[in-house]
Amino acid sequence: MMDKTTQTELEAAAFRALLKHLDERSDVQNIDLMNLAGFCRNCLSKWYMAAAAEHGVSMNYDEAREIVYGMPYEVWKEKNQSPATAEQLAAYEIAKPKDGH
Known about the structure:
Helix content: 55-70%
Shape: globular
Number of domains: 1
Largest sheet: none
CATH topology: SMc04008-like fold
Strand content: under 5%
């Protein structure tokens, strides 16, 4: 059985690995992540912000996105995001989460 501290450390390491992977795959658009997996970098940012709030840490959405994107969102968007295609938008309308991600 694993102790809670070790579990938390492993979860944190896995999260850092996920962020590194997403950083290395900046070619993968958020809309593609949403269409295939039902979440994207922005969802991770919202989850991070919610976790901060649960721990009494004040953080706004832009601060959370900077942690997930590794830079201000607008900079990342300018460097990496291309306009969604009609096909991507149509797939998103079918697959989009009901909770408004």
